[in-house]
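QA checklist item 7 of 12: single-chain prediction sanity check.
[x] sequence parsed
[x] length recorded as 115
[x] structure emitted
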Amino acid sequence: QVQLVESGGELVQPGESLRLSCVASGLSFSRNTMAWYRQAPGKERELVARIFPGGDSTQYADSLEGRFTISRDDAKNTMYLQMNSLKPEDTATYYCRATDSRSYWGQGTQVTVSS
């Protein structure tokens, strides 16, 4: 049974930082392309960042302006998203996704950026 469990979301003020984690089980983590998506209320789910097997290749949404960094630790079956200089528009539920021959989603973790 595949499980993706996100954590690290919380309420923060604009300009602060957060690190999200996604722990995977039940799959060959190192073989999977891992990604972070987010969905704000009333909006469609959008890709935030993606990291390919091996960890050397990544992709980011253009709107992030270099504020976020995706990484993975295959020894820990864990993916991370370091988020710096957070803005109110980053407020969303952040989801982890694993893709190999199939795709799996986590349940999400809430990030709220507000003063």
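[x] summary fact logged: The mean pLDDT is 96.
[ ] second reviewer sign-off
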